[in-house]
């Protein structure tokens, strides 16, 4: 490998050669403190995966009943991990820390947008979770009942998740930025029994109501008849309609409950949660994670990628509505007995330094955010962060999308003062936790690369036949062996799980290979460089959206005959959304209609899905068999020349019309 800081400063990832060694001081005390130690762990895992995972599961988790087997892969791709064992995620996150001095350690620090803040020790958090668990039981919620959470970033969101896990009621967290229609779809798909929400939250210095969206989801278009109860946290204290018998205030129902509620022993493969994410076809799919494997993976990865220490103050800026919030705000940190920070707000014109203020105030040691946020900070300049004391930081993380070397270097320099390793973590909702990432005490980092797979993760770059690709040849990112945190199925659609993830690539030996949907390459040092999705998924500011979802939202508008949606590179958001729309006969595409269509998509899905640009066209470029040629649209959307074969176009004049 070339030497540390002397490499060329070329910004293209293809030519990126800079290499940064882990800080010596960090490496000296790290759990995994050298590349050799990392490689030794990998070899151990590869040699006998069952022994590797089995030892870790026994050592790192509490078990009510020990498991009989580690991995049952007799019916691929449906894996069973740690069969025969019983455990409880809420117990692992709370009860087991109560025996010693950790009981009075801060578990959760919460910072509200208006500046109010709260903190909970492990003992206090345990009591709050028990009360919430008893409240859910009082509503008749029990083992196996799906509970939806539609919440702002308030402590009750984490408390509710842990309460669900405690009583064995799987949760389905729906990001609070999704619309009433999107919420209803998820309530219906999951046959959800209860919804936990809040009257609202604070955004950009204003109270923003949330409960009306729940009311709309439950009332309009037939509602979601399975929902019996709505539990409402009072946050903004404005007017809030409450339906008698159905709606209950959290403070009225939860606060008076007993602070004792034993954790339900759950079978390893009992469903823990469902989390919806976008794919290239159809409606968002409910990714199912189960109890023991997910717990182990969130726990281990958190420990490894942040080399967690007892005095760490960890802050992940994600929303609990996404997998990053599940694994690295709530479950990974608490399972490890760490202190985790949760922030309701975001940088905004009145407070551009909001994030740095949180770091300074709480002396955060680990900061985990998304490249899109880093790019926005870069744009507004270093003067803002330079005003804050961020000397407490020791590790920086990124997640959600490829990070360009320029943003990586800025992050390392301006936020980390060239002291803190940057861990660029590649993973997905489906993988439960991080899969490819530097270990801060072991892995030399290269700007723009998520570096090496974690121990036990058989990541590879393959072609469509599952053949490993040589160094620097591009290909598809795949995983050759099951791992404990893998999703188990698509809720209600096991065939979709099989098809979308395990049968896209079928190697000649008929082994099963997990297809991640990302394009990537591996360099001569074995480092992975993820390029982005190869399917019809757009990554907007680290949020995953299916082009089909946005297209069906558009065509549900009465003026729209047909729509095709593509992504185009965007300096800040990673990708922007461009929609090509054909209108019903006699309709005229003007600015008013564009505004109307954007609002319509916002209502159908949520504001994050609103197209950045809508182009009206008389027809869309299609093949003779009627398939939309997205490649052409992608080129047009990003202002590039349409290259490659266009001979399959049914009508070449369509292309000429689109060009003008
Ligand atoms: O394309 C990859 C990108 O985000 C996708 C997963 O999105 P989601 O399930 O919403 O989970 C996001 C948080 C884990 C991946 O298929 N992605 C995620 N992390 C990275 C990334 N792309 C490049 N580098 C990363 N570190």
From TrEMBL:
Annotated binding of ATP, by residue: 400-402, 424-429, 518, 533, 544
Transmembrane regions listed in the UniProt entry: none
EC number: 6.2.1.1
Modified residues (N6-acetyllysine): 627
Sample GO molecular function, one term: AMP binding
Classification via PROSITE patterns: AMP_BINDING
GO CC field: cytosol
Cofactors demanded by this protein: Mg(2+)
Keyword Protein transport in record: no
Ranges in a coiled coil: none
SUPFAM superfamilies named among the record's database cross-references: Acetyl-CoA synthetase-like (SSF56801)
Reported modifications of this chain: Acetylated. Deacetylation by the SIR2-homolog deacetylase activates the enzyme.
Residue ranges of domain AMP-dependent synthetase/ligase in the record: 102-488
Catalytic activities: acetate + ATP + CoA = acetyl-CoA + AMP + diphosphate
Cross-referenced Pfam families: ACAS_N, AMP-binding, AMP-binding_C
Domain (Acetyl-coenzyme A synthetase N-terminal) ranges: 38-93
Residues that bind Mg(2+): 555, 557, 560
Binding residues for CoA: 203-206, 324, 541
UniProt KW keywords: Acetylation, ATP-binding, Ligase, Magnesium, Metal-binding, Nucleotide-binding
Family classification: Belongs to the ATP-dependent AMP-binding enzyme family.
NCBIfam families xrefs: Ac_CoA_lig_AcsA, PRK00174.1
Annotated protein name in UniProt: Acetyl-coenzyme A synthetase
Protein's organism: Cyanobium usitatum str. Tous
GN (gene name): acs
């Amino acid at each position: 490998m070339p030497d540390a800081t002397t490499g060329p400063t070329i910004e293209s990832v293809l030519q990126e050669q800079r290499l940064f060694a882990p800080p010596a001081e960090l490496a000296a005390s790290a759990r995994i403190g050298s590349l050799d130690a990392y490689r030794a762990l990998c070899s151990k895992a590869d040699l006998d995966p069952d022994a590797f995972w089995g030892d870790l599961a026994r050592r790192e988790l509490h078990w009510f009943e020990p498991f009989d087997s580690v991995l049952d892969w007799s019916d691929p791709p449906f894996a069973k991990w740690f069969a025969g064992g019983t455990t409880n995620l809420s117990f692992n996150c709370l009860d087991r820390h109560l025996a010693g001095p950790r009981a009075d350690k801060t578990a959760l620090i919460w910072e509200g947008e208006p500046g109010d803040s709260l903190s909970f020790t492990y003992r206090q958090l345990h009591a709050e979770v028990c009360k919430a668990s008893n409240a859910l039981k009082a509503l008749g919620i029990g083992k196996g009942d799906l509970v939806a959470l539609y919440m702002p970033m308030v402590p009750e969101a984490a408390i509710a998740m842990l309460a669900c896990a405690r009583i064995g009621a799987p949760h389905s967290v729906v990001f609070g930025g999704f619309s009433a229609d999107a919420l209803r779809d998820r309530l219906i798909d999951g046959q959800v029994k209860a919804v936990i929400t809040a009257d609202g939250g604070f955004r950009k210095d204003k109270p923003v109501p949330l409960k009306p969206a729940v009311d709309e989801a439950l009332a309009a278009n037939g509602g979601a008849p399975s929902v019996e109860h709505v539990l409402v946290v009072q946050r903004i204290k404005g007017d809030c309609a409450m339906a008698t018998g159905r709606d209950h205030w959290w403070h009225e129902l939860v606060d008076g409950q007993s602070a004792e509620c034993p954790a339900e022993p759950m079978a390893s493969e009992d469903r823990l949660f469902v989390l919806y994410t976008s794919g290239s076809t159809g409606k968002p799919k409910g990714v199912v994670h189960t109890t023991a494997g997910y717990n182990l993976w969130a726990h281990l990865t958190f420990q490894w990628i942040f080399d967690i220490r007892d005095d760490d103050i960890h802050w992940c800026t994600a929303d609990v509505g996404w997998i990053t919030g599940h694994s690295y705000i709530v479950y990974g940190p608490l399972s490890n007995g760490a202190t985790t920070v949760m922030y309701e707000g975001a940088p905004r014109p009145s407070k551009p330094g909001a994030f740095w203020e949180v770091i300074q105030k709480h002396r955060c040691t680990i900061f985990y955010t998304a490249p899109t946020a880093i790019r926005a900070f870069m744009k507004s300049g270093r003067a803002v962060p330079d005003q804050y004391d961020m000397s407490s930081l020791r590790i920086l993380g990124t997640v959600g999308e490829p990070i360009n070397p320029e943003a990586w270097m800025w992050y390392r320099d301006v936020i980390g003062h060239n002291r803190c390793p940057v861990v660029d973590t590649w993973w997905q909702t489906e993988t439960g936790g991080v899969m490819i990432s530097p270990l801060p005490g072991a892995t030399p980092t290269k700007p723009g690369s998520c570096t090496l797979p974690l121990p036990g993760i058989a990541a590879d770059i393959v072609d469509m036949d599952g053949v490993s690709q040589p160094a620097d040849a591009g290909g598809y990112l795949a995983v050759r062996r099951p791992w404990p945190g893998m999703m188990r199925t698509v809720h209600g659609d096991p065939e979709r799980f099989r098809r979308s993830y395990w049968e896209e690539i079928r190697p000649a030996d008929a082994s099963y290979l997990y297809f991640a949907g990302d394009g990537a390459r591996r360099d001569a040092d074995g480092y992975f460089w993820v390029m982005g999705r190869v399917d019809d998924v757009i990554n907007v500011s680290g949020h995953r959206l299916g082009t089909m979802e946005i297209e069906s939202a558009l065509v549900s508008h009465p003026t729209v005959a047909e729509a095709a949606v593509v992504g185009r590179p965007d300096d800040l958001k990673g990708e922007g959304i461009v929609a090509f729309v054909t209108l019903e006969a006699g309709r005229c595409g003007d600015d008013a209609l564009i505004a109307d269509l954007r609002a319509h998509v916002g209502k159908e899905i949520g504001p994050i899905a609103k197209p950045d640009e809508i182009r009206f066209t008389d027809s869309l470029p299609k093949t003779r068999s009627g398939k939309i040629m997205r490649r052409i649209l992608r080129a047009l959307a990003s202002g590039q020349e349409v290259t490659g074969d266009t001979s399959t176009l049914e009508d070449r004049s369509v292309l000429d019309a689109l060009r003008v």
